[in-house]
Please model this.
Amino acid sequence: MLKKKIHEDDDGRVVAPMNIEGMPWYNPHAKKSVQAEKATQDPLSKRETFRLIMQLYASALPILLVFIAAFAGLICFMVFVWLK
Model:
C-alpha cells in the first residue's frame, strides 16, 4: 500500500474542491471547504452592497475614461488630419 506523502508547506486549505456530484470519487459526507462555509454564512447588508457597487464603479471609472479619451482622440485625428 502506498504511503501518503506529507509536505511541510501544506496547511490543509482547499484551493479548488474536486468533490463534484456525479464523479466516481464523489463523497457526499466530505467536509466542505472553509470558503464555501464562509460564503453561505450571512448575506451582505444593503449598505455593504451599496459600498461594494460604488467601489466597483470607482475602479472601472479610470478604465472607462481611458477608452473615452482614446475614442475622442481617434475622432479628432480623423476630422482634423484625414479631412484636410
The radius of gyration is 26 Å.
